[in-house]
Amino acid sequence: MIFLFDRFVSLFYLPNILLFQVVNVWDLHDYAFKTTIPAYEVLEAICIIHTGTLFSSFLGALSPHNGKGISDTSAIHYVTVGERGILRIWNSERAVCLYEQKSSDVTVTSEIDDESKRGFTGAVILPRDGGLVSVTADQQFLFYSSIADGQLVLTKRLVGDNEEILDMKFLGEEENFLAVATNLEQVRVYDLASKSCSYVLSGHADIILCLDTCILSCGRVLIATGSKDNTVRLWDSESRKCVGIGKGHMGGIGAVAFSRKEKNFLVSGSSDRTIKVWSFDGISYDVDQPTGLKAKAVVAAHDKDINSLAVAPNDHFVCTGSQDRTACVWRLPDLVSVVVLRGHKRGVWSVEFSPVDPCVITGSGDATIKIWSIADGSCIRTFEGHTSSVLRASFLTRGTQFVSCGADGLVKLWTIKTNECIATYDQHEDKVWALAIGKKTEMFATGGGDAVVNLWYDSTAADKEEAFREEEERVLKGQTLENAVQDGDFSKAIQIAFDLNRPRKLFQLFSEICRKKDDRHQMEKALCDLGQEQLRLLFEYAREWNTKPKMCHIAQLVLFQVFSSISPSVILEIKGIGEVLEGLIPYTQRHFSRIDRVVRSTYLVDYSLAGMGVVEADVNDAKEEEEQDHAQNNGEALEDTTRTKKRKSSKTGKTKSKKLKG
Q1: 3-state DSSP of 557-614
Q2: Distance between CA 599 and CA 499 in Å, rounded?
Q3: Is residue 475 within 8 Å of residue 498, measured between CB atoms?
Q4: Is 105 exposed, middle or buried (0-12, 13-18, 19+ CB in 10 A)?
Q5: Please, is 117 exposed, middle or buried when counting C-beta atoms within 10 Å of its C-beta (0-12, 13-18, 19+)?
Q6: What GO biological process term is on the record, naming one (predicted)?
Q7: Are 554 and 510 in contact (CB under 8 A)?
């Protein structure tokens, strides 16, 4: 039920009586039944049209077209969607349908047997005048937000489920679109800019297995599809119509390919083991009914199903790959066998001509990729690396590289000259069936059983440019760092060293600060300006320095400064700091134990030297000993003088006595 002011509209449906597929209108003032409006289909949703919205402005343009006035202001206008897949606008007072779509935008699949599951399952009017969005039974979102020529225009289509993606090709002159064949009988064309489904090509009666695209000289873009319904269809992307049908195969079409040069024929390969060349010269692109394609040549090519085929760049050859483990090269247009490529141990899933050399690349169920010479059919190179069947392989960068994908869900990039895989990408969760190579945009797309389309871009030039820019910025910062060191601005130098991620330079800066004790306030300022990530790096650097005896004293200085200038609560908020601190504790304890042992050992040395008299015990004792020595020296001098005088006096007396005697 949907309520609006004093009335509400309800759906009423009896499955066995068509006339009761109706809309009932009730008055909420007295809860009285007012009217019944037959819808003649099973309705899934009703959306009330409010005044001032996009659809209310659309109502004014309806009366001149259908002659049914809508001047009654008390009427309720609403949109209904149901099993028919058609939007309709109704007037509740006159019980008339004011607008009905000419054709349904819902793509119906033949696998759905229940008619009730072929249309819309829900709808809602978006707020802020965003238009109407409706949901289909096959999980698509259809957005109607514009009006042209009195008709609602489908502006966007979002696909909720692609199912299994079997093949894809880029579309358009600028390759802005991607044609995708899923596990349905439809081709979905995606706009790569908006990532939405631009339109759907419907017409096959069974699952589409393969497709190819080409651009004619007149600029018209064509799409060729092969299906399990044993037919080949040719589509015009501008009119979005089927312009040609090729009938004659007795089995499902497993591969189709346009001519590469002349672009006036296409080749198809089928499970009936034959290949056919179809000419589409004289096809009219303005008719409503498709024209029958004529087969120019037919040949029984293989002993088992044909999985893939490719046309040479000069349109002289076509190569086919089959489940019979061989690939064959045929001359066009008469399909004469040129060479048979034998060597794979399982079926061949992919074939493609080199854009520059006369060779063919093949991918097989034996998990190998081989490059063959067309001249003699010899195998030139074999590439191994996939763990399961190789489902697609295509050349890149003018034949110097190629990309492959397989049942292992891997996408691999190979260099032919070195015979090695240079990159492996794991972005799929299931088999990668489809691979599309862009000729102008230097990108490719992959899709597979996980219903995901991945777009890959060549980032080599961008990576080189980014690396050059980073190197240039690193050199400039390095020069700024050296200038800061020369100027003695250690705070700025430490910050730049962190930006450049140079732990060795940081150690040298901290060592310089350690030698200049007056500059430690700069280190404190620099540490306070660090963020949590930089602090975590500093602790990691200190943990490494702390493990080396020659660097541990700088690590301890840094740790002391960090714990002194930064709050512990801030340190504990750093992510993973607990593990770093646990690595710091054992070596720190070891360093302090070693220092303690060294200090204690110095006491024994001092005691030994003091006992040996080499080291003076005290300064005062030294002064007293010096005074005593001085006094003793003075006493000894006096005694020597006295003794000298006594000797002189004794000698004089003897002399006198001798003189007297004489």
Answers
A1: HHHHHHHHHCCHHHHHCCCCHHHHHHHHHHHHHHHHHHHHHHHHHHHHHHHHHHHCCC
A2: 40
A3: no
A4: buried
A5: middle
A6: endonucleolytic cleavage to generate mature 5'-end of SSU-rRNA from (SSU-rRNA, 5.8S rRNA, LSU-rRNA)
A7: yes
